[in-house]
């Protein structure tokens, strides 16, 4: 027996004083209403209505006592259904890297709706995404992690506006000489200002005898790309970003550097399982395993 549905019929019949009117109010056929009330009476072990009354549905003393709590149960059930509907319609907030392409994020949103999810996508930097997830301001976040711990990995290389070649770039080629008045820089964009990228590259630069100032974190991607376009400087980025910026991209010889991403948060598993392939596309990455 469905206790809530039985109580709904009981309340309508009790308030209307008629099985016919009560069944209509409950939107069920009269025989169904009669069966539900009978089942409820069997469940309680007491009569709710006086069967000696031929026309009207007259409540027994027990029935009058049970009507108010039955009303409360029905009201709570209706409130629960309302809140469940509200929760289903509430967007699932997801923090993503600001480097994600808008078209890819639109594809992610479309795929989410097909999967029964409504996303509220928020672009943020690495530290901001971590803080948003920790403070529960978002229900899931794509956080920057070392590649060894990542679900998605994005290889990084160096992009230039001046050099059109695909051969791996040797950092030693940037080593300053006495004949040069200036030196070339590698610009790190904010998305890559994390230890497993920044520190690895700086360590590699030190081994290649570069000056500390030759590897610099830019305040924004726009500033970094602008510096590269007006000089022979280089931008640390993915091959896809370089293509979007119309720059020539080269891998770094001998020093693999990569972004790593993992999903965290209360709804991380749900989002990853439903949208993992679309997230990988938005990141410009390959998933580490089939489940992602």
From TrEMBL:
GO terms assigned for molecular function: DNA-binding transcription factor activity; sequence-specific DNA binding
Any single Pfam family the record assigns to this protein: HTH_1
Ranges in a coiled coil: none
Residue intervals of the HTH lysR-type domain: 1-60
GO BP, one annotated term: DNA-templated transcription
Similarity comment: Belongs to the LysR transcriptional regulatory family.
Protein known as: LysR family transcriptional regulator
Organism name: Actinospica acidithermotolerans
